[in-house]
Amino acid sequence: MQNALIVGDNAEALEALLETHRGTVTLAYLDPPFFTQRAFTTNSGAVARGETAFDDHWSSRAEYMEFLARRLMLVRELLAPWGSVVLHVDPKTSHYLRVLCDEIFGEDAFASEIVWRYRRWPSKQENFQRVHDVLLRYRKDPTTKGRWNQLYEPLAASTQKTWGTSKQKAVVNDEGKRARSSKTEDASPGVPLGDVWDISVIAPVAKERTGYPTQKPEALLNRLIDALSDPGDLVLDCFAGSGTTLACAAERQRRFLGVDASPVSVATITRRFAAKGVPLACVPLADLASIPAPPDSTTRLRLDGRGR
User: Are 214 and 55 in contact (CB under 8 A)?
Assistant: First the structure.
């Protein structure tokens, strides 16, 4: 058994996994509660509509920060030297958590702040509409070549009008400065992907919708998994929720571990995998020993020389 949904408190699960999985996770994605001070219930399409999926009430911001700090410190120990963590938050908490992550991972480990921009029904407020989330990415070891697969987005219409879809080539003058551009016969893969991502939220009638209240779109997780891991790598989501990370990892031939204590989450993920016909092991905390350790991370690093 290598792929599993661990049922129970994620801090306890992460701490227990240190015995067998320390230094083996290539990508950890965390989509925790956003400090909204409200409870989230299931909606249309869920296993049972109107049930509480999770409670996001906190006595103070300090309690919330301590909750996340403990889990981020454990995740850091589980990451491989070439691995990264992506923390998905909102603009109201991102600046607090950026400072927290700088302290835990080190300022030099900060890799990028990704802005996920989406469209949604406008709210009636005298302010600019909030239409984005923030994804903070940190490297485990900035001195080690990290896992990275370059992704591209389409060329701008103006670029295609001038240069077509061919690769551009810089022509330099005698002083080594760019004088003009020319094009080659090779097709351009597009523009290297930037850190602002326009990805729609899940439509109410979309097939991937599960009814879980904070479900993230597969397009978002697919992009993260494609860029920051390779087939066979281990992906971890310790706030598994609707199971989007796990489902996308399975489709992309990554190994995965998910953690969630919510019965609604476990039921949603179980149904989601059953509908796809993909085996899923649900493992209680007491049985974590049944999850075998991945291949030795130091051996993988030595064989490839770059953490593969």
Answer: no
